[in-house]
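Q: What changes when adenosine-5'-monophosphate-propyl ester is included in the input?
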Amino acid sequence: MAQEHVESMLKVEEIFEPSKDVIERAWVKDYEKVYKHAKENPETFWGEIAKELEWFEPWKKVLKWEHPWASWFVGARCNITYNCLDRHVKSWRRNKAAVIWVGENGAERIITYDELLRNVNRCANMLFDIGVRKGDRVTIYLPRIPEQIVAMLACARLGAVHSLVYSGFSAAALQSRIHDAEAKVVITADCGYQRAKCIPLKHIVDEAVKYCPSVEKVVVVRRQEPKIKLEPKDIDWHEGMAKASQKFEAVEMDAEDPLFTLYTSGTTGKPKGVMHVHGGYMVGTYITTKWVFDLKDEDIMFCTADPGWVTGHSYIVYGPLLNGATILFAEGAPDYPDPGRWWGLIEKYGVNILYTTPTAIRLLMKYGDDWPQKYDLSSLKILGSVGEPINPEAWLWYRKVTGNKLPIMDTWWQTETGMILVTPLPCMKLKPGSAARPFPGIEPAIVDREGKPLPANEGGFMTIKKPWPAMMKTIYKDPERYSQYWKTIGNVYLAGDMARQDKDGYFFFMGRADDVIKVSGYRLGTAEIESAIVSHYAVAESACIGKPDALKGEIIKAFVILKQGYKPSDFLLDEIKKQVRKELGPIAIPSEVEFTEWLPKTRSGKIMRRVLKAKELGVEPGDVSTLEE
Ligand code: PRX
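A: The predicted holo structure follows.
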């Protein structure tokens, strides 16, 4: 990045000091001191935190690190659900609300810790009865309803590995994920609601499992009347739950036993099954939820993500429940039935922590200040942002409309990292657009291609030097792909993001360095979209890029070469978009499609998307020495 540009960005930086009452209330009051302690004694630091949770057997060693393989809490026995549920049910929290669920139509369900445990036990028994055992994979393709949380916890309780697939993915995308996981059971619903439209999830599952021989049973949550017909393979969720016992002891797991896989996009066409385990993931999500959001027992946390993505796993389900908090869990869109929906929920339930994405903030900002001003938002204490860089304008608006005094935690992390790695803590000063500093115990470095650390304000590759507890264990069935994260640049973890650090050590994230696109915070790979486009009969070749967009962060632009005999037309354009919808789902549809007769390639035939992007943005393409004539 040109130096003048960096300097002009620095000039617009404003600094917000934390208020006295925020510091007084915060779990961590002196970031530097805690960071130093964690850096000097990482095993003691993580071990002390782990002791706040309950283990069936303690660890023999906090960390065994044999690059690139890490084992955390070696020899310990635990089950994450014991800490999410039993630990609270044994205490005064037994009748505390664990989940407040609201449907799009205003329906409400309040589930206490005791009730949640009983439901999870019933579900674990139901799954056990249909043959699910420790180590088996279960795919969960559900909308944002309490059953989604119950199903996840039930799998974990009996030692099965859950694999959630976001309910916006198509049958083909679902099928490839079920297939890779070799799931024994799929759990779905008849319908998910989005802006009053019913997404027929069960139909999509029927399409997907036709070609998945591993699937023995499909469990269906039937929400609609009249009830949809079930196939011989299907089991009705409510009937199964009614028959099942509400007692099920959490299966004792090794701290390193798998908890879940979550498929995420990389630079190849095939999504990778990022695998997390019971012990380390539990410790990492527990403490980041507590410290970053200054979570207290009396708080209600509203994380607007979908558990189909990692934010929902870590900061709707596991992190808050490990802390015994109350979660507000809402189905539907932020602006339906009107743009006051989320503000109204905050007022109605007295939400204390709001954690959402920059795209959602920009969408609400578009509707103007009148909507938030209609509601009493005084219960809010901490705000959070995640999934993509937040531009200072959106940051300032988010702060302004919520009372102009709340700390905003711009949290940087990934599916692979499991937990937040770079973030402010409430006691720290804030700079709009900056994710601030590393969480205690995390040692990042911004480096060049050779791994050399870069000076302040120079953009480079984001890396992490040492392992952390909630890091992925591996990529399911592909350990080599896991190793690549730690072997591409030096011996450090390569995140795939570009970032710079200012003189105060504050991180500013600049987007992905690879062929991953973030559309509205959703992570997609260019190769996946390209292969969906090329599967259309008229397409010879395609290349996709992420193009900056004021609302969505990035949009997908596709360049398409047609096969001989086909001419560009609106009909084909529409057909290509439909093909992407069919192969991947609506979130992956390119906003722009340009027919072309040429794509820039290296002499060895690799498409140079970087050159296409530079041309699109009207900037210099950088090194083009490998470009074919
Ligand atoms: O590019 C970074 C971006 O999201 C990527 C990870 O995507 P995913 O695995 O889907 O997880 C999203 C939720 C954690 C990162 O490589 N990203 C995430 N948070 C931020 C961010 N970019 C800038 N600022 C953030 N706060």
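Observations recorded in class: The chain has two domains: 48-56+78-441, 520-617.
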